[in-house]
From TrEMBL:
It is a multi-pass membrane protein. PANTHER family: CYTOCHROME BO(3) UBIQUINOL OXIDASE SUBUNIT 4. It is found in: Cell membrane. Its main location: membrane. This is Cytochrome bo(3) ubiquinol oxidase subunit 4.
Length: 139
């Protein structure tokens, strides 16, 4: 094994190559903040238009994915490999598909749901005959 290979392996797999505790704690703090803000927007009594709130939540979700890629998966622009850029590009494409698909499915479900009359019990079938206690079932 040559010296350059050995030294590269030591730097890449040493304690500093995969992030320090400080960087991991910064990533954790950002992840917590990026989780608490949307939670507060949904659970709190925030007076924002629905589309604005959805846009903020989706934007924070995208930022959170980037925080996870950078701080926890250590995706960066180093010359360590062109695969990093390809993986980031693929993550962006998948993020777009997941976000757009989720919004599309939720929108279509909301538009196609039948309104239920008040007091209607979905477990009770209105036209179903009783199974016990009627003379028709004892024949």
């Amino acid at each position: 094994m040559s010296d350059s290979t050995h030294s590269h392996g030591g730097a890449a797999h040493g304690g500093g190559g995969h992030g320090t505790l400080g960087r991991l704690m910064i990533g954790f703090g950002l992840a917590v903040i990026l989780t608490v803000i949307p939670f507060y927007l949904v659970m709190g009594d925030v007076d924002l238009p629905r589309r604005t709130m959805i846009g903020i939540i989706m934007g924070l979700a995208a930022v959170q994915i980037i925080v996870h890629l950078v701080f926890f998966l250590h995706v960066n622009g180093s010359a360590e490999g062109g695969w990093t850029l390809a993986a980031t590009g693929l993550a962006v494409v998948i993020l777009g598909i997941v976000l757009a698909g989720s919004l599309w499915v939720m929108h279509n479900m909301n538009e196609n749901m039948m309104p239920m009359p008040e007091g209607h019990d979905m477990m009770q079938m209105p036209d179903a005959p009783a199974l016990h206690g009627t003379p028709e079932n004892h024949s």
